[in-house]
Here is the input.
Amino acid sequence: MAGNFIEEELKRLKEQGLYRKLRHVEGEQGPTLQVDGQEVINLCSNNYLGLANHPVMRQAAKEAIDRYGCGSGASRLISGNMTLHEELEDKSAGLKGTEAALVFNSGYHANIGILSSLIGEGGVILSDSFNHASIVDGCRLARATVVVYPHCDLERLEEGLKKAPAAARKLIVTETLFSMDGDEAPLAEIVNLAERYGAMVMVDEAHATGVCGPNGAGVVAKLGLGDRILVQMGTLGKALGAFGAYVAGPRELREILINRSRSFIYTTSLPPAVMAMAIAAVDLVYKEPQRRLALWHNCRALRDGLRSLAYSLGESQSQIQPLIIGDAQKCMAFSEQLLQRGVFAHGIRPPTVPPGTSRLRITLMATHTHEHLHRALKAFEEAKVEMRMEDRG
Here is the structure.
């Protein structure tokens, strides 16, 4: 039958260790979770500051529903542009230190909308090889020439800039804090190259927003590069614990995206409760800096503990700590060993990461306790012994 190709593709995915399935998660998104009926330590959440369950955000959402109702009713360009959308944009621009900001329904919507709006046929996009899938898809939609340079390789980036036609519209796009490796882009050097060769710069601060820099404003703010970067994208659903995304930059950038970004124009706007949660989250990032301090303390503690067990975590100095396993099937087997010991550290496999680099993407939260980390390290120690025994067979 014609549908047999689906069964064959699923079989192939299983044989290659690339088959995915959904796990059932109950309860709040905290430092511990109920996964498939088992309470586990959560080491794979992007809720870095632990804000997703904050009582102030809960209350803000409830009050917004009482005042504005549940749905936004339409796209922003029709009747869905509500007071809370513009208030959140003002808050986002204030956090980032830019003239303006525009709210998108997700980081994915934002990245494909920005790239397809700013660069078209005849233009050149230079993209880091480790950039997120939403950037990759945005590059495809832009219909521009795309030059993918090796991860953080400034020499190859400069080669791409030299080869680009002088009159072409050029844009360098990079994450600031990379989602799978936890390392930072050499952003100051990238900006210098962009200015030398007449290129624009777009950064994805999804995993840096709320975590890095003064008041959690991100890597751009940490390095003082805000006036030299055209586009700053960040998400509201990771460290900020809400949902959605923002694009911050000059006022003209906001206007062109309103007029040209299909992923903004042709979608119903985010509902009031989501906007209210995000507004409250931005305020909390200012008011509760101790959360960032707790997060960095936990990062150091777990990293030091894993290294004492002879685990390698690459170049990461952030809340994202990749433990490279290599083989996809071994990676998922190791993840299962940890889950049996009460630790949820999910395996990441191709195509999310390059072949041969399957890993546990370990992430920390500000709300993990010393006891959580102690129990997690014990599980990593036991799982390592178990995996060695299985390999010896």
The domain at 56-287 is CATH 3.40.640.10 (Aspartate Aminotransferase; domain 2).
